UniProtKB/TrEMBL annotation:
ABC transporter domain location: 8-207
Entries under InterPro entries matching the protein: AAA+_ATPase, ABC_transporter-like_ATP-bd, ABC_transporter-like_CS, ABC_Transporter_VariousFunc, P-loop_NTPase
Pfam families membership: ABC_tran
Source organism: Leucobacter viscericola
Annotated protein name in UniProt: ABC transporter ATP-binding protein
Keyword terms, alphabetized: ATP-binding, Nucleotide-binding, Transport
GO molecular function: ATP binding; ATP hydrolysis activity
Regions crossing the membrane: none
Amino acid sequence: MVDDSAVLVADQVAVSIDGFSLLSPTSLSLEPGACVALRGANGAGKTTLLRVLAGRQRATAGSVTLAGAPLDERRADQRAALAALIEPPTLYPDLTLRDQLALISAAWGEGDPEQALSRFGIEELHERFPHELSSGQRQLVSLAVTFARPCSVLLLDEPEQRLDPDRRKLVAAAILEARDRGVAVAFATHDQTLAERVAQAELAIGG
Ligand SMILES: Nc1ncnc2c1ncn2[C@@H]1O[C@H](COP(=O)(O)OP(=O)(O)OP(=O)(O)O)[C@@H](O)[C@H]1O
């Protein structure tokens, strides 16, 4: 049955390489403002699913549609609709964090660089360069960069990684705020508390 209200639909997507299964057949349907937590053991296929949903990896079976159209990362409208933090985003080594965020705001025509940083509690780092960050601060910057751009679908791979409990609460707040704006969210996590805080459904991957 086709779900007309869903913004992102994965129908029995699977990935295998040379007969080895990276992702067993998985289905997912996300409506605007929905949030699903992808759960599963190390190596279960969570990142692979996110990469398929983001159009960065081709499924070897099944299909993905975004706003009713087959996923095609060459489509500008689909690239604009999808924001994903799967690998760390590329940052300009010679720009301060404030300037990186200003660039993103200018590119998308909206957003406040200061607010993008303060949302994740790192406003005091705005004059730092990317190489001047701890690993947790780098993760917060990656999140700030990802949340700074408008989108209708947000895909996050272990957004809690390297973060302390208080910073994880900021991640939860940012996801809930995105949901309130109607953004559909799928994220892989090993953090049960985060999943319970922000997701209304969990999807078991692998098995
Ligand atoms: N480029 C690759 N070539 C071959 N196999 C790969 C490749 N990338 C990942 N895999 C394998 O695909 C499977 C799924 O990996 P994936 O990274 O999607 O798991 P995951 O659920 O995100 O794991 P984790 O919780 O450890 O991050 C694993 O068995 C992994 O070893």
